[in-house]
Specification:
400 residues; alpha/beta; Rossmann fold; seven-stranded mixed sheet; 12 helices; 11 strands; disordered N terminus; disordered C terminus
């Protein structure tokens, strides 16, 4: 090889090393970017402050109801937040979560019969009519049109009530915002006052109050004149959320969304790699194992499994059915041991029965017997393939 060839070969080798090095760091680049994105989402979502209990009138969080209190005060209402049953001087009341006992509920209804207006936003309250369905429409939760003649909500065109329920309208009551054979809002007279039930408080939360006409609905029900005194009964601690939070609830929503996107990307990649359309594509070859190492590993497996009989059978089959041996003996490949023994005895001068015993000996052989058998098989092969007949090695082939 000339010096120019040596230089060209060295240049190609150097370029190959450089390409492999570039592919190495480029292969890790997507994983590094993915790790940075996930870490950023975790830091961005993990630093959120505690925004209080769901439906809490003091909570500015998405599920709080502080926006209702602020809107009512903005229109001029005197809003009083407290757990006590409203008394004299209170015009309307909002019951977010009904955890009242029988005595408290009786006093509340007495206040209504005296002329108060009670808005019940707990879909599971005993003050509610029987529930018949939910506000869901197929796979979406679209807003609900009014479609009723109730004067109090004449200016409310639509409400957004995700996750709510609809109820049957009892005789003498008025239903509004109908869906799925029920009404989301049911109003009935109670003495001198009225009870208005809503199929859930979802429309009054901070994140939903600005949707559709939810804010207007809260005003026309609780402060239609703008100068009413409104009592807001907050939910007991832990009542709205059940008082239990799992491990998944502690993970920020942004991080959960990121992991869902990663899972979807993985599934798409798996489907893409699993289905091959077109001619076969060569996959990267696994690590090559040297032949000698494979032989040693196979022998170790036989030794561990104590498969001496199987190893002996392999040696005998190799001795009797090797294509080259059969060809030199004038036999077809796969000839039975008897024919091989006859031909080998005629060729080498060895005893026919000893050769047959070598080829069809007992199955169980210990390690020393395997070594002797291998030597005997090799002796027969060499003698059979030799061009010059020679005296057989009686010690080598005399294996029983």
């Amino acid at each position: 090889m000339s010096a120019r060839d040596v230089s060209a070969e060295a240049l190609r080798a150097g370029l190959g090393d450089a390409r492999r090095e570039r592919r190495g760091w480029r292969a890790w680049l997507p994983y590094a970017v993915l790790g940075v994105v996930v870490l950023g989402l975790a830091l961005a979502g993990g630093g959120q402050e505690d925004t209080g209990e769901p439906l809490d009138p003091a909570s500015p969080g998405p599920l709080g109801t502080k926006a209702v209190v602020d809107v009512l005060r903005e229109v001029g209402a005197d809003v009083r937040v407290g757990a006590d049953v409203p008394g004299e001087g209170v015009d309307t009341a909002l019951l977010l979560v009904d955890r009242l006992d029988d005595d408290e509920r009786a006093r509340l209804l007495d206040w209504v019969r005296a002329g108060g207006v009670l808005v019940v936003a707990d879909a599971g309250s005993t003050l509610q009519p029987d529930a018949v369905a939910t506000t869901s429409l197929a796979v979406v939760q679209a807003s609900i049109a009014r479609a009723c003649d109730l004067p109090a909500v004449a200016d409310v065109a639509r409400v957004s009530a995700p996750g709510g329920t609809v109820h049957e309208v009892p005789e003498g009551a008025d239903g509004c915002f109908d869906r799925n054979d029920g009404s989301w809002l049911v109003a009935r007279d109670e003495g001198e006052g009225a009870v208005v039930t809503l199929g859930g408080a979802g429309a009054l939360t901070n994140e939903e109050l600005g949707e559709a006409d939810n804010g207007l609905l809260a005003v026309v029900l609780l402060a239609p004149e703008g100068d009413e005194t409104v009592a807001v009964l907050p939910p007991p601690a832990g009542a709205a959320g059940g008082g239990q939070r799992g491990l998944v609830d502690l993970i920020p929503g942004a991080v959960r969304a990121a992991f869902l996107q990663l899972l979807l990307a993985f599934l798409i990649l798996a489907a893409w790699r699993a289905r091959r359309l077109g001619r076969p594509v060569l996959e990267p070859a696994p690590v090559e194992v040297a032949g000698s190492e494979l032989v040693v590993a196979t022998g170790n497996l036989f030794q561990t499994a104590r498969a001496g009989g199987h190893a002996a059978a392999i040696l005998r089959a190799d001795a009797s059915c090797a294509p080259r041996l059969a060809e030199r003996l004038g036999l077809a490949p796969g000839a039975p041991p008897e024919l091989v023994a006859d031909a080998a005895a005629a060729r080498t001068g060895a005893d026919r029965d000893e050769v047959l015993a070598l080829l069809t000996g007992p199955g169980d052989v210990d390690e020393a017997g395997l070594v002797t058998l291998a030597q005997a098989v090799e002796s027969v092969r060499r003698a059979s393939l030799s061009d010059v007949p020679r005296q057989p090695d009686r010690g080598a082939v005399g294996v029983r």
